[in-house]
């Protein structure tokens, strides 16, 4: 049985998930947005940062998101940024399918991550990811434009937002350009913690 297609992101209170410029990734605002993750035991384990780290519901959700994911899809912008910032052992540990116009051989990294470059659209990338994931879920990893393409195409089953107490003012909005006439949401779960509020929705055709 095929798994779900989902995305999971951190979002500021004013609706942004990343700065506009790649040069600002890892800048102050982005670090504040993602700060809830950095102390987690799972985050430290996955990036091999050493023992220790915080446990609790935030940590459980981060681990559950990772464990449900059998393959990921991402856009070229996210890959270009990550290629420079990820450690040699990239943090996915599954196949990743990059939607791009660039032709490139698969890029295999230590630890089980292999990046595959798909040149003929989001549906082909998703088909390949579904096959690779088996009965686990496919995560649309980002960035915002790629997530929006999948939402507007009716290809997302569920999503989770970690709503972070940060204001951006400008940047990449998660739902800028969403086809609201086609998309309806069904609340699944809302879990506040000391750091963020985790919101999960099922996506339905309107």
What's the layout of helices and strands?
Layout: E1 5-12, E2 16-18, H1 28-34, H2 41-46, H3 57-68, E3 69-75, H4 76-85, E4 95-99, E5 107-108, E6 114-118, H5 122-133, E7 137-142, H6 144-152, E8 158-164, E9 172-173, E10 183-192, E11 197-205
Parallel strand pairs: 1-7, 1-8, 3-4, 3-7, 4-6
Antiparallel strand pairs: 2-9, 5-6, 8-11, 10-11
Describe the structure.
With 206 residues, the chain is an alpha/beta fold. The protein has a single domain (5-205), classed as Dihydrofolate Reductase, subunit A. Helix content is 27%, strand content 31%. The chain is built from 6 helices and 11 strands. The strands form 2 sheets. The chain has a 9-stranded mixed β-sheet with strand order 5-6-4-3-7-1-8-11-10. A two-stranded antiparallel ribbon has the order 2-9. A hairpin with a 4-residue loop joins strand 10 (183-192) and strand 11 (197-205). The protein is globular and about 40 Å long. 32% of the residues are buried. The model has no long low-confidence stretch (mean pLDDT 93).
**Mass-distribution shape:** globular
Can you identify the CATH superfamily? Answer: Dihydrofolate Reductase, subunit A
Write down the Rg: 16 Å
Q: In which order are the strands of the major sheet placed?
A: 5-6-4-3-7-1-8-11-10
Looking at the overall shape, the CATH architecture is 3-Layer(aba) Sandwich
Unreliable spans are none
Question: How many strand elements?
Answer: 11
Main sheet record: 9 strands, mixed
**Percent strand:** 25-35%
Written as H for each helix and E for each strand, in order along the chain, the element string is EEHHHEHEEEHEHEEEE
CATH topology assignment: Dihydrofolate Reductase, subunit A
Secondary-structure content class:
alpha/beta
CATH class placement: Alpha Beta
InterPro entries: DHFR-like_dom_sf, RibDG_C, Riboflavin_Biosynth_HTPR
Protein name: Dihydrofolate reductase
Domain Bacterial bifunctional deaminase-reductase C-terminal: 4-195
GO molecular function: 5-amino-6-(5-phosphoribosylamino)uracil reductase activity
